TrEMBL record:
Biased composition (Acidic residues): 209-224
Key word ATP-binding present: no
Bias type Low complexity, positions: 1-30
The name this protein goes by in its record: Conserved oligomeric Golgi complex subunit 2
Length: 310
């Protein structure tokens, strides 16, 4: 460390320069050098430190340089690890490429050493397993025979299960068929009921004593002939709907004559009601209702024919 000494402000000698000497000759190089380091305020015997700070000074105690941390081992355990992707994540790492290469080489060397130590540590166990496996042909053969026997039993059970499955399928099909026949039988019975009731209401079949009582009860609910005709049309429509849901059946072929008689009688009643309503101009609503009855039983063309006739 270089130090500078300031001379006293009082001159060391009061002797004035000789008139023959120039005033500048009294200024020596040493004095000029001392004047360069003079402070703004004059103090006696003051020293100044102009050298740079040493590394051991307090200004270097805090080191905030971004030193790189060791590469984490977990980063290399990712199944989808690729060198390009991993290196792209190190863009903010303050480390030279040579230092990074050196660190990776050290990591590979450490891993090789760990693998070597692991194999040596487990070598005795591996040898023991190999010795235990030798001479186990008899056990393997016994297991193979047991597996073959089990396979035969499974095949036998599979045949039994397949047979039961076919039998159950056949029985289920039989049950569905019986249920279908029962449903058809119920519809046939309903058709028979509708046919018999229409024959009774239309006067085609003779009415017995019990049926007369039922007819009287129904007559109480139907005040006029139009209401009774409306009930006959409803029954005929229900009968036709049941027949269409069943389709072709020998029972319907046997009932063709009865159904034709019911249709003819119903058309006669509808025609008579339509002609009667036409004669009275105040019964236009009745005319429309009778025409709607024709349409409900699928005989709209017959209504047109009656309207055109005189």
């Amino acid at each position: 460390m270089s130090k500078f000494y300031l001379p006293s402000s009082t001159p060391a000698s009061t002797t004035s320069p000789s008139p023959l000497q120039s005033p500048t000759s009294l200024i020596t190089p040493t004095a000029v050098s001392n004047l360069r380091h003079l402070p703004t305020a004059s103090h006696n015997n003051t020293y100044y430190d102009s050298s740079p700070p040493s590394p051991s000074s307090d200004r270097y105690d805090e080191d905030d340089l971004p030193y790189p941390t060791p590469l984490p081992r977990s980063a290399f355990l990712d199944p989808a690890f690729t060198p390009e992707t991993y290196l792209s994540t190190l863009r903010n790492r303050h480390q030279t490429l040579e230092d990074l290469r050196t660190e990776l080489r050290d990591r590979v060397r450490d891993l090789g050493k760990e693998l070597f130590d692991l194999v040596n540590g487990e070598y005795e166990d591996l040898m023991g397993v190999g010795m235990m496996l030798s001479g186990g042909e008899e056990k393997v053969e016994g297991v193979r025979v047991g597996v073959l026997g089990f396979g035969r039993e499974v095949e036998g059970l599979r045949g039994v299960v397949n047979g039961r499955k076919e039998e159950v399928g056949r029985l289920l099909g039989e049950r569905r068929r019986v249920r279908g026949e029962v449903a058809v039988g119920r519809r046939l019975l309903e058709v028979e009921e509708r046919v018999g009731e229409l024959e009774r209401r239309l006067g085609i079949r003779a009415t017995e004593e019990g049926e007369e009582d039922e007819e009287e009860e129904e007559g109480e609910g139907e005040d006029d002939g139009l209401g009774r005709l409306r009930g006959n049309v409803r029954l005929f429509g229900q009968m036709r709907g049941l027949m269409e849901s069943v389709g072709e059946h020998p029972f319907f072929e046997a009932q063709v004559r009865r159904i034709k008689m019911i249709r003819d009688a119903l058309l006669l009643d509808l025609g008579a009601a339509l002609r009667t309503a036409r004669k009275d101009e105040g019964q236009k609503t009745t005319v429309l209702e009778v025409i709607r009855m024709y349409r409900d039983i699928g005989e709209a063309a017959e209504a047109v024919r009656v309207l055109k006739s005189k």
